[in-house]
Amino acid sequence: MSATSKSNxxxxxGPKPAPAxxxxxxxxxxxxxxxxxxxxxxxxVRSGLINDQTRILGVDWxxxxxxxxxxxxxxxxxxxxxxxxxxxxxxxxxxxxxxxITERLDYLQGDFLADQTYSALSEAIEGSAIFYFAVAERxxxxxAAHLGSAGxxxxxxxxxxxxxxxxxxxxxxxxARQLNADLLAVADESQLFRIDHFLGKExxxxxxxxxxxNGIFEPIWRREHVDHVQITVAETIGVEARGGFYDVTGALRxxxxxxxxQLLCMAxxxxxxxxxxxxxxxxxxxxxxxxxxxxxxxxxxGQYTAGNGLRSYRDAxxxxxxxxxxxxxxxxxxxxxxxxxxxxxxxxxxxxxxNRLSEIAVVFKVPxxxxxxxxxxxxxxxxxxxxxxxxxHGTRISFNSKVPGxxxxxxxxxxxxxxxxxxxERANVGYETLIYDCMNxxxxxxxxxxxxxxxxxxxxxxxxxWTKGKPEAYKxxxxxxSAADELLARDGRAWLPLxxxxxxxxxxxx
Length: 510
Ligand code: BG6
Prior knowledge:
By secondary structure, the protein is an alpha/beta fold.
């Protein structure tokens, strides 16, 4: 989303191809490379954003040639065109654009922990380079150390050397601090691009644009007018084949200090002084630091049992049959600053739930008095602005109106602005902007060391508390554990339904 790409978008010249570099992908044979990085690069090529001089160098331990790697990737790209569950959907692969990529592929067989791999890399790379760590987290620090000692992160003659680190970035504050220290021992903060793929989502970025380019939102975006905020990332899928990872991670670690907090920042941070990377990251940091310590009774955990044709979490492969790991987490947060003091932010995320829904819902206060009906004002449905991230992409605003007819009855109406109704749709797997920004050296949409640590610090007490006890069971296909409903009921509130857009007639209040 970089300020650069944005202003270019609006300008007559259109966005420019990124500077030339060698994109070195550690984990060339892995899932992330196939499913997301290659489709994102392909989309960038189609938009004319990849420099002709770009090279893509895959590194992995498997013995194969560049030709075989290219053939494998081509096979995967073809399967996308056949449909099936994937982030990337196309009717056909544009052979010119894909050919642009395959012509630029090179492959280096090597052990991530062996010195020879890095001497071979030194031979193979000239000029600017990006080192993309698409590998398991245990390799992050060792690869960085090897790159550092081989001099591969030295930047000179105007060339850049950037490092992209995937998640998980640590598993608590102490390990995140250690990883930051390891990375910062060999590279400058400006060379580090810590990915949170939620920041690459088009609709997440558009929240900033919506809030900060429209005069109508900012005045009401505060405690005087907002009753509370709900942030939801509900998934219908279970842990699938990721049981081994998930059973030592859990929903809180997997989703909250990173993805849900990114949504929180977009919804609640102060307007940055500019859209420069550090101004935006400072605004996010200020917000994260304002999260008050979370009381244990303001945190709810759940674990899914069988239902809706899905196996229970404990029956998933590589999961301990007695596991006490949570697959659902809900939190009530208090943001201790002038804008939000006293406005609860309720966050929830879970697997195997009744519906897939990612959104931020800002729920407004109702007017103090209803003068034309005997309905008490509190019975009015509050206005809600919903930033829809998936499955819908857009913004939905609901408000009250008079039901046509002789009597004065109030009903709820809603308006949805889908991005696709106004702008041409662009193929996007979510990594395009992130790769393009990294090539341009724009860190706005990446996590700074302190952002990561502030996220972990905020959930530290709950991580600690949840090492004891166990989560409440909830049925697959349901809306989560009953304790999560009680968390809001206790405050006289309720979660918005997961089944998104209720029909107008169902919503009408008489
Ligand atoms: C990942 C988590 O980071 O994000 C997954 O590890 C989760 O458990 C995923 O399913 C959600 O991302 P998205 O883009 O599918 O909403």
